[in-house]
Design brief:
Low-confidence stretches: none
Radius of gyration: 17 Å
Shape: globular
Mean pLDDT: 90
Oligomer: single chain
Structural class: alpha/beta
CATH class of the largest domain: Alpha Beta
CATH superfamily of the largest domain: HAD superfamily/HAD-like
Number of domains: 2
Largest sheet: 5 strands, parallel
Number of strands: 7
Number of helices: 11
Length: 215
């Protein structure tokens, strides 16, 4: 992705007394979404990918909504005002609901296959609009965490600590995959092995390099 670079090297996954935990972000990693392409079109400019992602992560409206603190209608009104969008809150909310789409082809088979040797979980910044849309896919994981239900949000360190507490594992037992570099950096800071991936194909290549998956 433009403006982001991850120098992380790879090594085979560790094997120990308990299975390694593979922890995945959803949007842009396992699930198709138009979040940042749609945002770029709405703001009427062409910011680089990292600038746009950083603004999204810092947005007060987004953080409040994805922490479960405000309703969809409140989020839409605040977001339209904060980002100075030229459309009504209701129009924005309708478009926003469609930003998250279906799992990438092969994602369901990947999760099912990885669970033969690993504990496979997901952790996404999500909300009451998008999370239910993935219900069928979420049922495939050993555990699924969303910021709006957990009350913690990436890239805050407390979010990763909360997930570790829920999983009852040490940070070193977890390999985390996300398409936003800030989240990867934060996961590493709490002790996880974390990897920046830019697409589903990139994720597969990373898993192959870790000897966790083969096509």
């Amino acid at each position: 992705m433009t403006g982001e670079h991850d120098p992380q090297t790879t090594a085979p996954l560790r094997r120990g007394a308990r299975r390694d935990v593979l922890l995945f972000d959803l949007g842009g990693v396992l699930v198709d979404n138009d979040v940042f392409d749609s945002l770029r079109a709405l703001v009427g400019a062409d910011p680089d990918d990292r600038t746009l992602r950083d603004r999204w992560l810092r947005s007060p409206a987004v953080r409040s909504f994805e922490l479960g603190e405000i309703t969809p209608d409140e989020f839409a009104a605040r977001f339209v005002e904060e980002w100075r969008l030229a459309l009504a809150p209701g129009e924005f909310l309708e478009a926003f609901a469609a930003w998250v789409k279906q799992p990438y082809p092969g994602a369901e088979a990947l999760v099912t296959g990885l669970r033969r040797d690993h504990r496979v979980c997901c952790f996404s910044n999500s909300n009451v609009v998008h999370w239910p849309r993935a219900a069928g896919f979420l049922a495939l994981f050993d555990a699924a965490y969303s910021s709006h239900l957990l009350g913690q949000i990436k890239p805050d360190a407390a979010a990763f600590v909360a997930v570790l507490r829920e999983l009852d594992v040490a940070a070193g037992a977890v390999c985390f995959f996300d398409d936003t570099l800030a989240n990867v950096v934060a996961a590493r800071a709490v002790g996880m092995d974390a990897f920046h991936v830019t697409s589903f194909d990139d994720l597969l290549r990373r898993l192959e390099s870790l000897k966790a998956w083969s096509r």
